[in-house]
Design brief:
One of its GO terms (cellular component) is cytoplasm. With 443 residues, the chain is an alpha/beta fold. Helix content is 32%, strand content 23%.
């Protein structure tokens, strides 16, 4: 753990300073409001974006975070800004119909634009670079089934996407060993320092009038008449509307705040390592501002940070608190992609939870009047959660669900959720086998 209470990671070591939450709280007048139009529970990207957009809409808002904003997945992810959903338009159309699917796709396709617009508007100190995002195919089949259709979808929607063959992909990432069959490049994407972005979202929300409380775990949530009561260690908050945005960390350190929500997601651990800053001789590797994610089911994702370190992420070999020795699979992946680096020693290793839903889609739920819930980043949180926060703010501010360009649905529980750890392990082994079989044709 770092001195701030954050798990040790590259992001905790290099982030901008957090807003002085304790000082802000102490400066509040005695008897300061314990009620607001909206109480937001959870200080990740979704909750922070919700608070910011509610404040911009003129609503009073209090955000309660159990640790500090960015403590969970928002401060531990790979920092890749990826536009749009993983689910392609044709599959969304089969679920929601053509018109609704098109509205969802176009709206979420603007999520990266929203992130970079907020960064510019508030001059956020989060080391953002907009060099685009690459989705790399680990074999001919994923190139044909995943990469090519997504390229064609976004080209058809007006995005200046590019298709890369094997050699072009290797050149784009600076690899001397073409390890991917090809890729598509999305110019809307980029990278940032994820913990800094969370802290800067908090700073922006505070500047616009939101009240953000760190170190304030929520213990209970109940409706009393027309008002919600949110019980915290510091007292009871009251609001007409509540936004619950704890996502994969909804059960961390507390009982489930609303029945049934925990069964609708499976928290899966993702693992990352960062090297020492690479010497100038390797500046050709992963130009600044570019993020890469491959098409494996147990995917790899990688980028350079603002210090020149190479950051590689993938499926975690352990649940929590990884050791340096756990990075060996990621070191081998680096050697495969960039042979000249060999097996680079990790300077940092860390992990975090990703909330996976049954259909791999994010979800907005309204399980009770005036209660809005977000679940399911599914590994694409930076841009998507920022956009989800804006839509949740619209809903909490009074917009009708049918007017929001995303469906409001009921939670869909995983069957046999209590056996999730065994199921995740078995599925991981099966996915690993499929990924290896599909990779054979790419070498």
């Amino acid at each position: 753990m770092t001195g701030s209470g954050l798990p040790r990671s590259l992001w905790a070591a290099t982030a901008c300073a957090a807003p002085p939450y304790a000082e802000i709280r102490n400066r509040l007048p005695a008897g300061s409001p314990t009620s607001a139009d909206v109480v937001v529970i959870g200080g990740g990207y979704t909750g922070l974006s919700t608070a910011l957009h509610l404040a911009l809409a003129g609503r009073s808002v209090i955000l309660a975070e159990a640790a500090e904003p960015g403590w969970g997945a928002s401060g531990r992810n790979g920092g890749q800004v990826i536009a749009g959903l993983k689910t392609p338009l044709r599959e969304l159309a089969a679920i929601f119909g053509d018109d609704r699917a098109c509205a969802i796709t176009v709206n979420m396709g603007g999520s990266a634009d929203l992130v970079f617009a907020l960064i510019e508007r508030y001059r956020m100190d989060c080391q953002a670079g907009r060099g685009g995002w690459l989705q790399a195919a680990h074999g001919p089949k994923p190139y044909r089934d995943i990469v090519l259709p997504r390229y064609e979808q976004w080209r058809g929607l007006g995005v200046a996407a590019r298709l890369l063959d094997r050699d072009q992909m290797a050149a784009a990432i600076g690899s001397s060993a073409p390890a991917y069959h090809g890729a598509w490049h999305d110019p809307r994407g980029g990278v940032l320092q994820p913990l800094s972005y969370a802290r800067e979202l908090a700073r922006a929300a505070i500047a616009e009038g939101a009240v953000i409380h760190a170190q304030m775990p929520v213990r209970a949530l109940r409706r009393q008449g027309e008002t919600w009561q949110v019980t915290t260690d510091a007292g009871v908050l009251r609001a007409n509307q509540v936004v619950l945005a704890t996502n994969a960390y909804g059960g961390v350190g507390r009982a489930e705040l609303w029945p049934g929500l925990a069964r609708a997601v499976i928290p899966v651990t993702s693992f990352q390592m960062a090297t020492q800053p690479l010497p100038a001789a390797f500046d050709h590797i992963l130009p600044a501002g570019m993020g890469v994610t491959d098409s494996r089911r147990l995917l790899l994702y990688f980028r350079r940070d603002h210090t020149g370190r190479l950051v590689m992420g993938g499926r975690s070999p352990v649940e929590d608190d990884p050791a340096l020795a756990d990075a060996l699979p990621l070191q081998r992946a680096i050697r495969r992609l960039f042979p000249e680096l060999g097996l680079p020693s990790p300077e940092f290793v860390w992990s975090g939870k990703v909330a996976i839903t049954r259909d791999r889609l994010p979800h907005i739920h309204m399980p009770a009047e005036g209660l809005w819930v977000f679940q399911g980043c599914n590994g694409r949180g930076v841009a998507m959660c920022t956009m989800m926060g804006r839509m949740l703010a619209d809903l909490a501010a009074g917009m009708a669900p049918g007017e929001v360009p995303f469906p409001v649905t009921a939670p869909d529980a995983f069957p046999l959720h209590g056996l999730r750890r065994l199921g995740v392990f078995a599925l991981s082994q099966y996915y690993r086998l499929l990924d290896r079989l599909e990779s054979w044709g790419s070498t």
